[in-house]
Specification:
Oligomer: single chain
Largest sheet: 8 strands, antiparallel, barrel
Structural class: mainly beta
Number of strands: 8
Strand order of the largest sheet: 1-2-3-4-5-6-7-8
Number of helices: 1
Shape: globular
Strand content: over 45%
Order of helices and strands: HEEEEEEEE
Length: 128
């Protein structure tokens, strides 16, 4: 019987350790990167603003952030000089953080009934 209790305890411990804890407040005032078309894109989060830099900061997308919760927000595009960018100023993109594992943030973006998953990696923190 003791073996059964030990086995249950072990499985319970492993199950508890496997859950991702999300502290999405770490997004604010932080810098990340992701890959698009085999190139790095730099992403800078402020408290209420967001900027993506493409092509070694030659091009950008600037957005306002509407925080729905610590782990969900909307980006409203306010300015861009990225060639052939398909979205207009005022377009609203919804983002939900799915998990945070170390320096990697996994998210789902939604726009106009379409959704896609992505990953970005923290590169530094502007407050440090």
């Amino acid at each position: 019987m003791k073996k059964v209790y030990k086995l249950i305890f072990l499985f319970s411990l492993v199950a508890l350790m496997s859950f991702d804890k999300k502290d999405c407040s770490s997004l604010k005032n932080s810098t990340f990167k992701y890959r698009y078309a085999k190139k790095d894109v730099l992403v800078v989060f402020g408290v209420n603003d967001y900027v993506e830099y493409h092509n070694n900061k030659e091009h950008y997308i600037k957005s306002d952030i509407e925080w729905k919760s610590d782990c969900e927000y909307n980006l409203i595009i306010k300015e861009t000089n990225l060639p052939d960018f398909p979205f207009k100023v005022g377009t609203k993109l919804q983002i939900k953080i799915n998990s945070i594992r170390g320096r990697k943030v996994y998210y789902t973006s939604s726009l106009g009934g379409r959704s896609w998953e992505g990953r970005m990696t923290r590169v530094n923190n502007r407050n440090r």
